[in-house]
């Protein structure tokens, strides 16, 4: 039912995992609706997808623009009927100072959480109006992270925003299952992208973006509730979730990044 989407929307498609997903799905008879904030990079990705035979529509805009993205989603759905919407756009923000925590947290939630809401809510609205129930070939995916499995001292704003998306996506899955609309939460570990290239901290079990796209697409085709990878990170995060609090207190340290107490 979900294995062969013909019309796919991807936010944050101008780089990273979003770009890799767009290139993975691009093929003859596939319609891609791609959005990103950088029009030049977005058009470069679009041209690469068109070269593989896909029909590509683009919108250069910010997922925080709720009215703008809702209007674009409506246009895409009316023209092509969306089968799969991947709310991928996000940022990894942090602060090495106490004074910067407020800005990092506010901006992280505005993009990583509200930006996902601005994408999936209109998509679900349009999909849920289709008849009869259960709806055929309609699915949304929310981009979380393995960091969302627990509050991480090295990235309070990022891990908390991704935890919110993980829980929300799991709740939506149950809420829309009766309509036949699939909902999956994607929880990657470290993926080789321009974003992680700037990271000076250790990144264990880093995998290439194209490999990540293959894993995600395979999981979505099976309508998996959670698509968490690589397996080493799955093991570590599940272990962490079940440890006693006194042990977590010993190991949940801001490893690899500047400690707050080390800044004036």
């Amino acid at each position: 039912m979900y294995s062969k989407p013909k019309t796919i929307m991807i936010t944050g498609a101008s780089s990273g995992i979003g770009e890799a997903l767009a290139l993975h799905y691009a093929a003859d008879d596939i319609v891609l609706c791609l959005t990103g904030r950088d029009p030049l990079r977005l058009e470069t990705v679009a041209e690469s997808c068109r070269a593989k035979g896909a029909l590509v529509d683009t919108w250069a805009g910010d997922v925080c623009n709720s009215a703008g993205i809702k209007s674009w989603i409506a246009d895409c759905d009316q023209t092509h009927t969306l089968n799969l919407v991947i709310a991928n756009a996000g940022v990894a923000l942090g602060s090495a100072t106490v004074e910067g925590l407020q800005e990092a947290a506010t901006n992280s939630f505005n993009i990583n959480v509200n930006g996902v809401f601005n994408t999936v809510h209109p998509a679900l609205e349009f999909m849920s109006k289709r008849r009869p129930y259960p709806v055929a070939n309609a699915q949304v995916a929310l981009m979380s992270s393995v960091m969302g499995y627990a509050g991480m001292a090295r990235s309070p704003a990022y891990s908390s925003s991704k935890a919110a998306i993980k829980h929300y996506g799991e709740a939506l899955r149950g809420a829309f299952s009766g309509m036949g609309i699939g909902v999956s939460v994607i929880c990657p570990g470290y993926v080789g992208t321009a974003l992680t290239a700037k990271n000076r901290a250790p990144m264990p079990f880093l995998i290439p973006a194209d490999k990540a796209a293959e894993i995600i697409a395979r999981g979505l085709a099976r309508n998996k509730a959670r698509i968490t990878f690589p397996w080493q990170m799955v093991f570590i995060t599940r272990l962490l979730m079940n440890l006693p609090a006194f042990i977590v207190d010993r190991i949940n340290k801001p490893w690899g990044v500047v400690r707050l107490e080390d800044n004036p």
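The beta strands are 7-10, 31-36, 55-60, 84-87, 139-143, 182-188, 191-192, 207-208, 226-229. Residues 184 and 229 are 14 Å apart (CA to CA).
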